[in-house]
Each structure stands twice: as C-alpha cells, then as structure tokens.
Amino acid sequence: MKHILFILNFLLVSLSISAQQFTISGVVKDANSGEFLVGASVTIVGTTNGAFTNTSGAYSISVKQGSYKLEYSYLGYETAVVDIVVSANVKKNVRLTQAAMKIDKVVVTSVARDHNVISTELGAQTVSIQTVKIVPVLFGENDVLKTLQLMPGVKSAGEGGSGYYVRGGGSDQNLILLDDAPIYNASHMMGMFSVFNSDAIGDAKLYKGSMSAEYGGRLSSVLDVDIREGDKENYHGQGGIGTISSRFEVEGPIRKGKSSFLVAGRRTYADIFLKMARDTSLHSTKLHFFDVNYKFVNDIDENDKLSLSGYIGRDVFKFRDMFGMAGGNITATGSWLHLFSKQWKLQSSFVYSYFDSDMDMQMSMLDANLQSGITEFNWKEDAVYRNENNIVHIGGNVGYHRFSPGKLTTSMLEQPIIMEKRNALEMNVYADNSQTINDWLKVQYGLRFSNFMGLGAATFYDYNQEHEIIDSTIYKKGEVINYYPNLEPRLSVNYRINAESSIKAAYTRTCQFVHLIQSSTVSMPTDYWMPSTNKTKPQTCSQLSLGYFRNFKENSYETSAEIYYKNMQNQIDYENGANLFLNSNLEAYLLYGHSRSYGVELYAKKNVGNFTGWVSYTLSKTEKQFEGLNSGKWYPVRYDRTHDFSIVAMYAFSERLQASATWVYSTGDAVTYPSGKYLVDGEYVSYYTERNGYRMPAYHRMDVGVTYTQEKKGRFESQWSFSVYNVYNRKNAYMIYFEPVDEETPDVLQAVKITLFPIIPSIAWNFSF
To answer: How confident is the model at residue 104 (pLDDT cuts 50, 70, 90)?
Structure first.
C-alpha cells in the first residue's frame, strides 16, 4: 500500500511540475553597440509561441517544463538559435550581430517573420531605415515621410513634398511623434524635406487603422518615430555630402556599457552657391535649413534607465533685404523607465514641443513682421503588464497648450495687430489589452477617455448672419471656458486561418481638439493652429476596417487586402471669399460639416533575396458635405484621388552595388474651375457650378537610384549614391489657371499649366567610421 501511495504521489508531483508554467525572459541587444533591439522576434522553433521585444528590448515567453530551441531574429541582423532547458524561470539575454554582407542592408529584411499575420494590427506600416536609405527621392535626401507615401492608403500632399494624407484625412489630422514629442510642422523648405534625419532615427511605424488606446489626439493616423540610442561600447560616426545638403552624426559611450550619447546634424547650402552668382544682389540671399537631433541614455542599473532626447530645427529664407521667412520646431523629451519585475514596467515622460513661424517684409513704403506659434508641455505615465497571454497598457497624460495665432507689427500702424492667444488643458487616461485567447484567436481592446478644457483669459464673440459682433463673453485668467469629454473605444480581432494567413477586423474611434487654419496645401507662415472653442467643436472619427493577410514561402512574400470606411464629424471649412489672414473674427466665417472616406488597399511585398520591394494600390473616395457649400451636396475633397499606385523595386547586384527604382501613378486632384463667363458692366465674371467638380491631369513619375560601396579601409567606409528624380521628365501639373488667348478676344480663355520639377539628377557621398 505504501508503494502504491508513493507512486501516486510521485505521479501527482510529476504532473504538477509538467503543468506548471515557467517564464523565459531577457533582453535582445546589438552585439556591437549594446543598443536595445525593439521589435526583435523571439520564437520557439516548431510552435506558434513567441514574442516581440518591447521598447526596452525585453521579451517574455511562458512555457512548460522541457527543452526548447529559441530563434532570435531582427531586421538586418544574423539569426541566433539557442537551446534552453526549462525547469524553473530562465533569464536569457541575447546579442545579435549585424548581417555581414552588405546585400542584407539593401533587402527589406534579412529574415522574414509573420508579424503581419499573427498580430492584431490592421492598417499598420513599418518602414525600416535601411529601406529609407535606398529608395530614390528628390535631391537624393533620404526621407522617411516620402517613403511612407509609397504605402497603400497614404497619399502625397504635393509634388516633391513630404506632407501626406491618410485614408481621406487632412494633413493636420496626422499625429507625428518624435520620442513622444508632437511635431506640429514636419517639413522643411515648404515641404520639400522632412524634419527626420535618417542617420538619427530608428524604424518608423504608421498606424492608420487599428491603434492602441495609448494613442490619440488626431483623427487619421499616428506616426511614431524614435531617435536611436547611441553606441554604449564604441565611438563611431557617419555622414554625407549631397547635392544641396550635408549631414554628420557621432555617437559613443559616456560610461562604457552603461551610458551613451548621439548627436546628429544637417544643413542645406543652396544659399552658398548664390554667393557665386554673377548678380551681386543675390549674394545676400539666404535659403537653407538646419536641424540637430540628440539623445543621452544612462542605464542606472538593470531596472532603471534615464534618457534625454530632442530636436532643434530652423528654416531660413531671405530674398535680398526685401522679404524673409523663418520657422522651426524645438522638442525635448525626458524619460525614466523602471522595471518592477519581469512582468511590470513603468515609463514616466516629460515632453516639450514648440513651433513658430516668422515672416518679414521690407519695402520702401512698408516694414512688416508676422509671427505665430504653438507651445505644448506634456506629462505622461505608461505602465505595461505582460504575461503569457496578455500585454496590458494603463496610463494617462496631462498636456498644456498655448496657441499664438498671429502678431503683425508694421511701420504703417502705431500698435501691432495681435490675435488673442488661447490656452487649453488636455487630460487623457487609457487602458488597453492585447490578449491571446488561443492559437487561432487574438483580440486587442481598449478605451481612451479624453477631456479638453479651454482656459482664460479670453474673449469670445457671437455673430449675426452678416458676420457682425452682437455679443461677447469675457473669461478671466485660468477660468474654464468649455469642457469636451470624449470616450474613444478601440477593438481589433485577429482570426488566424492557418500558419500563413489570417483575417482581421477593427473598430477605432478618435477625437481631435486642435485645428490647423491653412490657406494652401503647403506650409506657409500664415498658417496657424487653434483650439476647440464654444463654437468650434472637437473633430471625431469612427473607422471600420477589415483585412485579409497571406504570406508565402516561409514568409518571404507577404500580401494583404484591406477595406475601410471612415465617418468624420465636425469638419471645418471656410465660407467662399473668407479672409483667413489675421482675422480675429474668423469663427464667424467657419463652416462645420462632415466627411466620409472609404476604399480598398492592396499590398504585396517581397522580403528576401537580391531582388526585393513592394507594390501597393489604393482605390478610394473621400468627400465632404457642408450646408453652406456646393448647395449642401456632397463634393470630393481636393486630395480625393480615385486610383493611387506605387511600385518599389530594389536589386543587389553584389555586395557593393545596389540599384533601386520607384514608379507612382495617381488620379489628378479634384479642383474647382469656372464653367463659363458672363459680362457684367463691361467686366467678365467667372461662373462656377459645383465645388471640386473638375480634375487635374493624372500624375505619374519614375525615380531611379544606384548605390556603390567602396572597399572598406580600417574602420572607414564610404559609398556613392546617384539618383534621378522624374527620370522620363514628366511635366506633372502643379497648378492650372486660365487666361485670355489674346487681348482682342478676352472672352476666349486657355488653360495654362504650371509644373515644378523636371528631371533632376543628384549625387551624394556617404561615409561611416
């Protein structure tokens, strides 16, 4: 009997041990620099069990007792396979080595993974910095925003520009974050360059469908970009000299293995060449931008990390002593990351963001200066809990906004014209969980509560139909003007059909409390931001999306098809003929309506091999409806482009020679043209029918590039990059206007097309050491 009891007890203990869950956890770092690898894949070979590293490079996988083979892989790095025997919790830190062959820097990924199939993300696009550096662009300046424009659902805001529209939303409806700091103007030189220096940043991720409840504040998308951490082990740098710009980056340890720094800067120098012009009056002309990125990181111990990062950028344009424009962004982010355990961590961040613009005019009879800007302070707390089946985010933030719409100082007036400054407080709390229910079903669900409060001192007016002031309300300093509480539920579901395919569905509600007053599609000094007020309500959006994801040949090829429908409320437009310039009574001329956007996005991508790239196609429609416009009927927005098609191809001929090419096609913008003319008191007056009822000609363009890497000498390595923008010299219409054919027949008009960029070659020499 004792023997039987002993055997039964032994079996129970054995069963208990075999059923017990243990944890394999650790961090994944770069073998050379010690930098955390964010988004690295950790997979148990032969199973679907695995994880991706978080922003601290940490991972955690729950398993039963036994022997396992773990595979660690990351974009552009050699895969590591480790055998682990588990009888208790195991901590395993891994350092991955960058792939030795230069070819791997050209391919989209050295080891294809199935993240697009197994994750709950819908409408998310990740752009690797390796891809950004090889795709040919205008003037040869690597640009993450222009690479994003080649993705489905993302449309360029204009010829050669870095602005973009996402799934029918306006350019001001995209939240752009650099180390958690919002960037209010992400472009240089009126949109031709973005604020992102490719030497200073890591991968960029765009959310245009489903998104975590952690994100909010804009209707259409979130672009999350991080400044890289510097090398904690060795000093090195990189840079380049291009056709119109140069850049330089240096990084290294402050305390070896514990702390590091990274500083990167760049500057254009078109104005330097103007000093060589024969026309001496151009020698004083200034035309350039500069920006600086920095990041300092200190690992206090295994559980605590401090970081300080930021950005400083400025555009300067001055034509002789007559006209000038300047403006730029300043951001700073201080962050403390604390790990309470293998499952709990908390990140506390303080964020500062500032944007201003300045315009000067100096003529014989006029001396004027126009200034505007926006300032934001933000405190954020984000706690993360992880176990085998859940990743929970709980947090919140408090932000203070100060809006400075405009101040005009002129020699013609004794006192400056000042649009009243506005102040606002924004508070958000959120909870979000990404849960694995079983091998074939994952869900991500969350709720975000946001509250926006306008603060005094301020004066608000009531108007009649003739835009005349009939009443006013004065608020004291610090007095609450309005409350706008909003609930933003989020839900995303992934149903996995098999190891290579899945179906996803998502619902996302977003809310936006700030609005950009803009008179053109490019950034101008006359643009300014304004908060939601008693009259101007917050914009809201509800989006439904459905997608099918399918990979082939061990994830070497990935494809997807997504459909979406967006309904946007409290949209803003202006009455016909409204004056936007320094108009303190602008709200009297604002119109409020709604818009809708729906479409299909197709995407196919080849990840591995000498030949890589992707093809994207978007079929969409975006239209608005306002009671005071177009007779109250629906009309297409200007950037409504029915068809949008992109091809990106990259080929590695050898370790040293790579080539790339892109081709884009899109339906022409919707525009309003006169349908006729009639004579009134001897003057011809244009006759308009429907708003945006005509189309610009279709847009298409091809760019090519070649990169040649020279033989490495010691630690020094260099490469030459050649690119040609608009290789077949397509004369795409930037603007079309009408003028009389001749003076004798003023009633007969002809269309005149304005184009911007012909075929433009560029060359750059890049180096690293």
So the answer is: very low
